[in-house]
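Step 1: inspect the first sequence and its tokens.
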Amino acid sequence: MSYWIRWQLGDIPLGIGTFFIGRSPAAHVVINDPRVSRSHASLTLDESGMVLRDLNSQNGVYLNGRRTTESPIVPGDRILIGGQELELVEFVGDRDRHNRVTRRELSTTQRLQHQQQIEGASPSSPLVPEAEPEPDPEPDSGLSTRRADPIELLATVAEKTLSMGRPADAERMMRSHMKNALQAARQGIPFSPERAERVAALALRLAQALRKAEWVNYVFDLYTVLKMPAPASVVETLYTLVRQVPDVNLAALRQYIQILRGRVSELGPAERFMVQRIEGLERLVASI
């Protein structure tokens, strides 16, 4: 029986000891992503099981959609670091056959370390001496870790989960982050139109998959707080969904429209047209 980390570049075997994941070339799993710290996370395997740890990273470690600092993990668990999803898998069978990992994009360091493991080296004996995890570069070095939006980090995983026919899992993964985003908007924290559109699009995907009015109403609440017309992509999706999803909150939509009407004089022609489309949405919901 063996444990492996499965990710987009192939399967990497794990043995007793500690594996490091990060942007540093000395890591066992090198993720070249500006959202990933040089020493981002570690996996430690011993006789009692496996533990995932966040090594004080800038953007955090997510286990099955929830941020964690230290957690035991078992086969089937999914880890999100930066924009990369990794899965812990258990393999029972021909170890030599399964050792044929995909190598075409692995870094030189990873290839050598993988070969060491196949030949029986301890995973806690990396190519460079194992000491304290390497600190991130200074902020002005050009390589510092960029703070990422948790919704942006998790959206790809949520989309995959939805495409696999598991909308309830996607909702559990995203609910707290979506609610936090709305609360941040209410507190006046800057919220760009682009981010609002991404968040609204994800909410509507959940509404469509789950047939839940809650996520349609979420979009009304978000744009009410932001006091801006929703973009065409969001409005056109709403026209489709309000016919499919029962119990859409007409009062919330009307409140949103009232906010927009109070700002019409400040809006450009394209935005005023979107206000008219949203007013038409009110008539549609009222007629259902």
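Step 2: inspect the second sequence and its tokens, then contrast the two.
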Amino acid sequence: MSVTTAAEGRVGVLERYGAWLPVTLDTPRLSLLEGSTPLLPASRLAEWVGVDELYLKYEGLNPTGSFKDRGMVVAVAKAIEEGATTVLCASTGNTAASAAAYAARAGISAVVLLPGGKVAAGKVAQAVMHGARVVSLDANFDRALEVARETADRYPLALVNSVNPYRIEGQATAAFEIVDALGDAPDVLALPVGNGGNITAYWLGFRRYQWRKLATRTPRMLGVQAAGAAPLVHGAPVEHPETVATAIRIGRPATWEPAIDAARESGGHLRAVTDEEILDAYRTVARTEGVFCEPASAAGIAGLRAAVREGRVDGAACCVCVLTGHGLKDPDTAMGGGVPIEKVAPDADALAAALGFA
């Protein structure tokens, strides 16, 4: 008896791009049908940003709601292949949710270290529901990652943060998908930057497609950090990073040099935007395009808009903004200003009057 589902015909990263990934016959074909996220044309947002052609790579539609799933499926599968029964990560939230989900899918254990008081509730809820051992440290993310690395070096746990090279390999598949959808690389790719792994992965993916002659060019990479957490922009660690964009609240990126190299080698640049600019873009993309992303995702949009205004990006360029996570990851920010809900009597005429129809 065959069973069909709504997802029939869709495959995960390991199956779709296995030939491009470091998998062997012994690598478990783990999957939650990650990847294959939409590349949405965004004409109304393009007008606001100041460009003629804009697309949104909406990674919030991955299984756990963020881009982390692409790399995590490869990292967890390879960890199992190498004999691991427990995976470990430090996280500002999305990595924790993804590691917990793929560990649950694979039937192994997960331990996640969270910086105390610095993680959005929606992400913690995911890790808890997937059965991970959740540990809060009285430290920022950078110290939490140091603890995770030290622990993995000394004990039998597989570290699945972006310092794990398999994570970068899996995340590179998003670049493949963009070229597959557009027929070539865009002129500019804008994305938020926290720990530096994602911009590194996209640059790797675009270069590989060009090397194999599946793309004629590579894009200029625009990496965007929050002003209160912009070590790559300022060239020095930030001891106490602060930003409303919790996913990129990182002061000492683990993938520092490769992230800088990606921006420089591509002819792009790294820049910072304020929390006000991030929140403006966050609200605008939701209201102009019907796409709800988490605040950190909107940093790329804000950065692209600023670059266009400064003349660093031509308005005629074909641009892609990567939306790294779903808005439901951080509902508190969406609701933070109070929700304008009107109270109206339960009557059609009263409703029509309130709406201005009577």
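Step 3: confirm your contrast with the notes below.
The longest helix spans residues 197-211. Residues 1-7 have pLDDT under 50 and may be disordered.
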